[in-house]
Write a structure and sequence with these properties.
This is Melanoma cell adhesion molecule b isoform X3. This protein is mostly beta strands and 595 residues long. It has 2 helices and 49 strands. Strands 31, 33, 34, 36, 37, 39, 42 and 43 form an 8-stranded mixed β-sheet that branches. A hairpin with a 5-residue loop joins strand 48 and strand 49.
């Protein structure tokens, strides 16, 4: 009985003790997770309350290994603080606070990927009441910028299996980044036999991840302008971030369904002599296709651009561009019509010129065959004389004669014109155009130039002569008006008259020019005076001789003149037989002999 009572008492004490210990348990609060970048410092806070107060608690920090075991890294009570040796955190942790305020913080420096563990804070009261809390440490590393690389070769729509479009890659991230492909801002999802996305993940020695994604798909013509890019998402402390690559497009080879051909230049109407540039456009894009341009005459050019130089109306016609798909040998074509405008050489009627009689009339025509409306103008000596295809000449005269030029042009085309000429001659006797001057005065032995302008047909013959019967050489030329110009040059030695005589089968005409030689009368007068003086002197000498005033002796006699100091005329007579000389004055008086 006593033993039974003792047992009941022991059980009661145990129940009481257990109940009291439960009342003394410690309550611990911690965050579920702490997030930091690799290499940074992590702070894990442990907050607790205890019925015993905070002074007599034992605090310990543990982490859970990869195998699930607890590993103590820190111990603290009211007397000591100890960091456990030989753990990955021995040199990288510190604990702030004594726990007196119900909070203690574990600091982990230089956090690495291997530190992504669960940390446990254990608080034990003096009465053996214990509480604990847990926090997971999450470590992050921002990946590098993503890259994208598209295929360099084109992709045919005839490919049976999905073809590679491109590859996206992002490196050195933690946790593992995610890659999503987009086409024109729309996410691309895998589809059986149409779209295939193949990811690959590489874990580096550092524990970081590199992710690569390859996109393959069957392409259609509609994909030729699409833009492809990748979106990379990755975790960071406190959230999720996203970055995008640049865009790429692909070359899609597809057969043509429509072909067009046109004249690229010149714009508008085409005329003979132009250079034509034909362009061909096919809406397909094939690596291997045959494109050519041909005309109705069977000429073909294996190109989508053709240049025809110096075209004529023979180049008019239908030009066809043909595209052949070398995979299926299907053919599509398009065509355009080319018309080359033309302007034939002008034809003048009468063709070989015409001869008219005085007063006669003439109607001439000028025409040029053209594909366009033409405009005709007649010119003579650069002056407009008539408009229209017909030229009417009435009451023909020498002024009517000349060369008429008809010019035919196409108003729509600058420079598109042709021309021809008509020579008109008017038969009639010569007609000398009245000179401006017919009287000339020239110095003795000067040259005088005389001109005679003559109209007439047939071309007159011009002859020059002078009043003394001399025939002169002349130079002649005919101008564009049919006027014959005859010119002579004459040396003036006396007064004379020059005659210009023109003649042809129908008659003659003449004009005279009077030339006076200035200074010739004075010279003649001087000559006459000199002759008269000599005559008078001879008469005087003869008279003196007859009167005996001049006497001589037999033998040789010299007669010399000598001027005396008195300006008298002295005649000295000497004889061969005497030494004596007799000087006689003009009056027959003796003069003393000069020694």
């Amino acid at each position: 009985m006593a033993a039974r009572d003792s047992s009941f008492l022991l059980i009661g004490l145990l129940v009481l003790f257990h109940t009291w210990g439960a009342w003394a348990n410690v309550e611990v609060n911690m965050e579920d997770r702490v997030e930091v970048y690799r290499g940074e410092m992590a702070q894990i806070a442990c907050m607790f309350t205890s019925s015993d107060g905070v002074g007599g608690n034992v605090i310990q920090w543990f982490y859970v290994t990869r195998t699930g075991e607890r590993q103590k890294i820190y111990y603290q009570d009211s007397t000591i603080k100890v960091v456990d040796k030989g753990t990955p955190f021995t040199d990288r942790i510190s604990v702030n606070g004594t726990g007196a305020d119900g909070q203690i913080v574990l600091t982990v420096s230089d956090v690495q990927l291997d530190d992504e563990l669960e940390f446990i804070c254990v608080v034990k009261a003096l009465t053996d009441g214990t509480g604990e809390g847990r926090t997971k440490l999450k470590v992050f590393e921002t990946p590098g910028s993503p890259t994208i690389e598209g295929v360099q070769t084109g992709i045919s729509v005839h490919e049976e299996n999905p073809s590679k479009i491109g590859t996206c890659e992002v490196k050195h991230g933690y946790p593992k980044p995610n890659i999503t492909w987009y086409r024109n801002k729309t996410p691309i999802h895998a589809a059986q036999d149409v779209v295939k996305v193949v990811p690959s993940i590489t874990t580096e020695s550092s524990g970081l991840y590199s992710v690569r994604s390859e996109l393959s798909m069957k392409v259609m013509k509609e994909d030729k302008d699409d833009l492809f890019y990748c979106e990379v998402t990755y975790f960071v402390p406190g959230g999720l971030r996203m970055t995008e690559t640049s865009s790429i497009n692909i070359t899609v080879y597809y057969p043509s369904t429509a072909v067009s051909v046109w004249v690229e230049s010149p714009k508008g109407e085409i005329k003979e002599g132009d250079s034509i540039e034909l362009h061909c456009h096919v809406d397909g894009n094939k690596l291997f296709s045959i494109n050519s341009i041909s005309n109705e005459d069977g000429f073909s050019w294996d190109n989508k651009t053709v240049v025809l130089e110096n075209v004529s109306r023979l180049n008019s016609g239908v030009y066809t561009c043909t595209s052949i798909d070398t995979d299926t040998w299907e053919e599509v074509s398009g065509n355009t019509t080319v018309f080359v405008n033309y302007l034939d050489p002008a034809v003048v009627i009468p063709k070989d010129g015409v001869e008219l009689s005085m007063g006669e009339e003439l109607t001439a025509t000028c025409n040029a065959l053209s594909s366009l409306q033409t405009h005709t103008v007649w010119f003579k000596n650069g002056q407009k004389v008539s408009m229209g295809h017909s030229l009417n000449l009435k009451d023909a005269s020498f002024d009517t004669a000349g060369t008429y030029k008809c010019v035919v042009n196409v108003p729509e085309f600058e420079g598109m014109e042709t021309s021809n000429t008509l020579n008109v001659n008017v038969n009639g006797p010569p007609k000398i155009i009245e000179p401006k001057f017919t009287e000339f005065e020239k110095s003795f032995e000067d040259m005088v130039e005389l001109s005679c302008d003559v109209k007439g047909y047939p071309a007159p013959t011009v002859m020059w002569s002078t009043s003394d019967g001399k025939i002169l050489d002349a130079k002649s030329k005919t101008d564009t008006e049919g006027v014959l110009q005859s010119v002579v040059s004459i040396k003036v030695t006396s007064d004379f008259t020059a005659f210009c005589n023109a003649s042809n089968d129908f008659g003659t005409d003449a004009v005279s020019f009077n030339i006076t030689a200035k200074g010739s009368g004075v010279i003649i007068a001087v000559i006459i005076i000199c002759i008269l003086l000599l005559a008078i002197l001879g008469s005087v000498l003869y008279f003196l001789y007859k009167k005996g005033k001049l006497c001589g002796r037999s033998g040789k006699q010299d007669l010399t003149k000598e001027v005396s100091s008195k300006d008298n005329i002295v005649v000295e007579m000497k004889s061969d037989n005497t030494e004596e000389a007799v000087l006689l004055g003009v009056n027959g008086e003796k003069q003393p002999q000069n020694n």
